Amino acid sequence: MLLKIDLLIIIAAAFIGCNKGYDIKPLPPYEWSKPVCDTTLKVVWQKIISKDSSYGEARFLSDNGRYIYQYTGDYDKKIKGGFFEFDDNNIRELWKIEPDIPNDKRVFKLYSSFRDFVLLQNKFIYTDVATVYCYSFQGDLIWKNKFGGVENKGNGNSSISGFGNKVYMASQRNGSNHKRYLFEIDIETGLERLLYTEPMENNMIGTFDPPTTYIIESDTIATFQIRTYSQVDAHNRSDLVAFNISKNKILWRKDSLDRYARGSANPILIENNKMYYAGAFDIYCLDAVSGKLIWRQAFDNYHYEFNHTSMLLLENGLVTKSEHEEIALLDKETGAIIWENRGVGTGSLQIELYKGDLIMSSSGKGTLECLDSRTGLLKWKAKAPNQCIDNRAGFGLYSFVINPETNLLYICDKFFVQCLKLPGYD
C-alpha cells in the first residue's frame, strides 16, 4: 500500500513539475508578475508579442531615428505578421499582414539568419522563397514578384541582400540541368534580371549565399559564396566568386578557399578594399580587387566554429565570435590575435559596438553579455528578466536595437517585446 502511495506521489509530482513554467496563457492579463531573479537589466516596459499565439518572435529595426519591430505568431495559431513603431514610452501599430492561406501554411516567417528582408530607400523588401514583396513603411504593397527564375522553373531563396536600389537573390534549377543562378531585382519595379549562372557538378547540391556588394573604381561588384555538398561521397566545396555587375564578367574566383571546404553562413565584410570572410574554423582576409589571400587566422582551438555567428569591424580590429564560448579581436592588417575570451555565451547573430563596449546575445544561455572592446573582458552578463518565470523566455538569437540617447535596449524574449535599461551608462 505504501508503495502505491509513493508511486502516485511520484507520478503527480512529475506532472506538476513538467507543467510548471510551461503552461503560459497567452490571453489577458498580458503582464507577468515582476521578475524576482536577475535584475541587471531593468524592465521599463514589456508588451506581449501576439495576444492570440502561445509565443512569437520579433525582429527589431532602426531607420533614421525610428524604431520598429516586426513580429510573427507561432505555428499553432493563425499566421500573422505585424509592424509596430515604438519609443521609450509608447508602441503604435503601423500595419500587419494576415495572409489567408489554406492549412495555415506559414508564408510570413522570420528566418534565423536575419537575411530574409532588407530596408532600402524607405522600402521593406521581403522574401518567403516563392515570392518577393516590396512594402512601403506605411504597409502599402508597392509590388509583388512571384519569382520564377529561369524559364519559370527556378525557386527563390530565403535570403536576400541589398545595395543601392537593387536586391539580390539566388535561384536554382533542379533535374538533369542542375544549375544555380544569381538575380538582381529592381526595388522600384520588381523586375528581375539574371546576372550569373553556375553549373553544378553531378550529384552536388548547394546554394549561393546573398552577395556582399560594393564599388571598385566606379564598378559595382557582387561577391558571394557558393557552398556545395556531394550526395555520393559527402565531400564539400566552398568557392568565392567576385562578379563585376557593371561589366557583366567575373572579376576573380577562388575555388575551395576554405581548407575545411565548408565555408560558413556569415556575411562577407568589406573595408578599404579588404575582404573578411569566415570559413568553417578559420578567418580569411583577401584583397577585394584581386582576390589574393592576405592572411588566414587558424585558431589553435578547434572549438572555434563560425558557421552561424558574427563578425564586426571596429576601428582597432575585427571581432570574430564562434558558435561556442570563444570571441576574439584580430588585427585587420595581419590577422594576429589582439585579445581572446574563451568564456562567453554560445552563438550570437548580432554583436554591436556601444559606447566602447561589445553587446551581444547568447543563444545557448539566453543571456545578454557586455565586454570591454579594448580588452575582451566581461563587464556584465544578464539573464532575460522573465527566465525565472519560464526558462524558454531567454534572449536567444533575437535581434535588438539600442537608443544611444536613453541607453534603452529593445529586444524580445519569445513572449514579450521589452524595453530594458542598460546598466553603467548614466
UniProtKB/TrEMBL annotation:
Q: Which residues form the Pyrrolo-quinoline quinone repeat domain?
A: 238-384
Q: Which Gene3D superfamilies match?
A: YVTN repeat-like/Quinoprotein amine dehydrogenase (2.130.10.10)
Note the coiled coil stretches, chain numbering. none
Query: Which Pfam family, any one, appears in the UniProt record?
Result: PQQ_2
Which PROSITE patterns does this UniProt record tie to the protein? PROKAR_LIPOPROTEIN
**InterPro entries in UniProt:** PQQ_rpt_dom, Quinoprotein_ADH-like_sf, WD40/YVTN_repeat-like_dom_sf
The name of this protein is Putative pyrroloquinoline-quinone binding quinoprotein
